[in-house]
Design a protein that fits this description.
The protein contains seven helices and seven strands; from the N terminus they run αβαβαβαβαβαββα. It has helices at 5-14, 24-37, 48-58, 74-81, 103-112, 124-136, 159-168; strands spanning 16-20, 41-45, 62-65, 94-98, 116-119, 141-144, 147-150. Strand 3, helix 4 (74-81) and strand 4 (94-98) form a beta-alpha-beta unit. Helix 2 packs across helix 6 and helix 3 runs parallel beside helix 4.
Amino acid sequence: MLQSSRDVEGLLRSIKLLVVEDDYDMRKVIRSLLTMAGAKRIFEAADGDSGLEMARAISPDVIFVDWEMPGLKGPDFIKAVRAPGKFPLPDVPIVMLTGHVERRRVLEAMRLGVNEYLCKPVSAKTLHDRIVSVFANPRPMVRIGDYYGPAPRKESTDPIMRAWAKQCECAWLD
């Protein structure tokens, strides 16, 4: 596991990150922030469809995806990825990185199976911390009804997410 700063540095140098973002300038900003955070292997896709193709081709370790994109939008991208048997990497950590801060969107993203939800603008430190978090504190993937994604967080206040968390019968609920 990640026990030292050297472990974290090695992780950030070795993992493949995929940024799925339609805005060229924002992709460049995110790339720069990820580089400042220590990442070395960063791939980009300009829309959801090319993001799915890129994910199949490179098998990323983490995907950052925007909400609003032409064609395949972020939520539909997440649904496509979180489809065991249909997509080759249904367990890949997904970080929603968006300018939308409405509670309903955060809850929808949770219900779709994102690991983390970050609002733009974001700092290199925040990106670094989220990448480390998905590896240092991984949540098991669960299937509950038509949901497939990381086990819901214990502290969720959303009644649907709490019900899903209870169905997981995870030890952290006690």
